[in-house]
């Protein structure tokens, strides 16, 4: 027929491309990280507080006892400054390529180090951190429930820690089915409020108790080797306390973004508020707790505070509510990774049944490991150095140097290299102390006792 144009390959391919894009969009809308992008800046604030202020804050006075006054204060302040700087870098890098958002830590890693290498560098470390935190929070949640039970009901029959971990886990078998990051914002807000509350109780009750008679600030270990190992292990406990970076890109992914109003504005506002709250929680607990109890402080400050019973019981319930929120924040990127793998790579259909099975299996796995290895302090410093230090202290700096290529020997170049060296020292030294602590605990530990 006159006037008709012959169809090109492009015309034939167009419907197929549109169909592929529509399918891709449907999957992205189903996945937990990219499922909802309507978060406000204050969501970023309380998500970051919940992710950052974890059970680690209660171990800070103990870390101070192993570090001593001078090194302890210096490392706390240095960590606060360095991690705020690396967090700023991640917020900036989220949208540094026009029209693209790095919604997940490993996507940024792939852009910085290459498609394959980026995955191999980031994913194992991120998984160790997120799964490690979930396991540690299972232990913490169980221990705090047990402490509450023992404090409130002194004459009650003693119940094993195993059962308390199971009770704590049962909440996650329900909460883990909230579909995406924004849907857990209520849980996260409650958790953020609780973290400020129990931190205040921890240092307030310490002040009320006053400086203990015969308090000592020297190192507790009798040998030089013991002192050095304890010092290393305390570095890991501090690193664990600043572990929010593993979920920061995922949190930013939930904030809407346009070229005129990029997501980094509201995200950064939330981060600054979160870091002020972090300082209000960490510094008073660490310094006042150590000042009052000296080197006899327990690895969880609430254990050192026996009375008043109602207040310590309440603080332990606050800890339980907080670690429920924290567990969800760290589990969400793991759910996202598993569901992405199943739906995009193995071509499973994105259904409710798939999500139900995947998430229940994950919660069951973390519960099983927590019941098997409940050595709280040693686990903190081992994981703290091994995986938290890289993802928090120096991976963002390496990515920044690789992508932005700042002028050699300029301010940005030096700042990043100082952070990298500090982070590397943490990563190498703290697992040594943590491993020793786990071995010492394991000598007397009986499985499922």
Care to describe what's here?
The model has no long low-confidence stretch (mean pLDDT 83). The chain is mainly α. Helices cover 74% and strands 0% of the residues. The chain has helices at residues 9-30, 41-52, 60-67, 69-93, 105-113, 115-152, 161-175, 185-209, 224-241, 248-252, 264-293, 301-304, 309-345, 352-372, 376-404, 411-444. The relative contact order is 0.19. Helix 4 runs antiparallel to helix 11, helix 6 runs antiparallel to helix 15 (376-404) and helix 7 (161-175) packs across helix 13. The N and C termini lie far apart (86 Å). InterPro entries: AA_transpt_TM (IPR013057). It is found in: Cell membrane. It holds the Pfam family Aa_trans. Belongs to the amino acid/polyamine transporter 2 family. Amino acid/auxin permease (AAAP) (TC 2.A.18.2) subfamily. Its main location: membrane.
Write the layout of secondary structure elements.
Elements lengths: L8 H22 L10 H12 L7 H8 L1 H25 L11 H9 L1 H38 L8 H15 L9 H25 L14 H18 L6 H5 L11 H30 L7 H4 L4 H37 L6 H21 L3 H29 L6 H34 L5
Write out key terms for the chains shown.
449 residues, mainly alpha, 16 helices, 0% strand, AA_transpt_TM, transmembrane helix, cell membrane
Give a quick summary of the entry.
By secondary structure, this protein is mainly alpha-helical. The protein has 16 helices and no strands. It is a multi-pass membrane protein.
Strand content: under 5%
- Total count of strands: 0
Gyration radius (Cα, Å) is 23 Å
Main sheet? none
Q: What proportion of the residues is helical, as a percent range? A: over 70%
Sequence of secondary-structure elements? HHHHHHHHHHHHHHHH
N- to C-terminal separation?
A: 86 Å
Low-confidence stretches: none
Choose one word for the global shape. globular
GO cellular component, one term: plasma membrane
Membrane topology: Multi-pass membrane protein
Subcellular location: Cell membrane
Main location: membrane
């Amino acid at each position: 027929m006159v006037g008709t144009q012959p169809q090109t390959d492009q015309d034939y391919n167009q419907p197929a491309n549109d169909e592929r894009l529509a399918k891709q969009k449907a999957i992205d809308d189903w996945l937990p990280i990219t499922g909802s992008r309507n978060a406000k800046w204050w969501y970023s604030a309380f998500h970051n507080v919940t992710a950052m202020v974890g059970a680690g804050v209660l171990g800070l006075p103990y870390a101070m006892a192993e570090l001593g006054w001078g090194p302890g204060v210096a490392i706390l302040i240095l960590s606060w400054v360095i991690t705020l700087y690396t967090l700023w870098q991640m917020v900036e890098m989220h949208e540094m390529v026009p029209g693209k958002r790095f919604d997940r830590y490993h996507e940024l890693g792939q852009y910085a180090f290459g498609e394959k290498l980026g995955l191999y560098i980031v994913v194992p470390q991120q998984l160790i951190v997120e799964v490690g935190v979930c396991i540690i929070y299972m232990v913490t949640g169980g221990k705090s429930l047990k402490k509450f039970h023992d404090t409130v009901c002194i004459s009650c029959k003693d119940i094993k820690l195993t059962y308390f971990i199971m009770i704590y886990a049962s909440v996650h078998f329900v909460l883990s089915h909230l579909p995406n990051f924004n849907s857990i914002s209520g849980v996260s807000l409650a958790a953020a409020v609780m973290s400020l509350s129990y931190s205040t109780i921890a240092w307030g009750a310490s002040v009320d108790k006053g400086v203990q008679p015969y308090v000592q600030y020297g190192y507790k270990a009798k040998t030089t080797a013991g002192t050095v190992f304890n010092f290393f292990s305390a570095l890991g406990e501090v690193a664990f306390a600043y572990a929010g970076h593993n979920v920061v890109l995922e949190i930013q992914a939930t904030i809407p973004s346009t070229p005129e109003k990029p997501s980094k504005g509201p995200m950064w506002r939330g981060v600054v508020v979160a870091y002020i709250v972090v300082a209000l929680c960490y510094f008073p607990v660490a310094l006042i707790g150590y000042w009052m109890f000296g080197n006899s402080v327990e690895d969880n400050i609430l254990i050192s505070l026996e009375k008043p019973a109602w207040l310590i019981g309440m603080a332990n319930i606050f800890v339980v509510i907080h670690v429920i929120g924290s567990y969800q924040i760290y589990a969400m990127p793991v759910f996202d990774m598993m569901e992405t793998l199943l739906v995009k790579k193995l071509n499973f259909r994105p259904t409710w049944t798939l999500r139900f099975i995947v998430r229940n299996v994950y919660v069951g796995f973390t519960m099983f490991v927590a019941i098997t290895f409940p050595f709280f302090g040693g686990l903190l410093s081992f994981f703290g150095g091994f995986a938290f230090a890289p993802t928090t202290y120096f991976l963002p700096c390496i990515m920044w140097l690789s992508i932005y290529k700042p002028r050699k020997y300029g301010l940005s170049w030096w700042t990043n290299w100082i952070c990298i060296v500090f982070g590397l020292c943490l990563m190498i030294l703290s697992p040594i102390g943590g491993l020793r602590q786990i071995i010492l605990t394991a000598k007397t530990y009986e499985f499922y006792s």
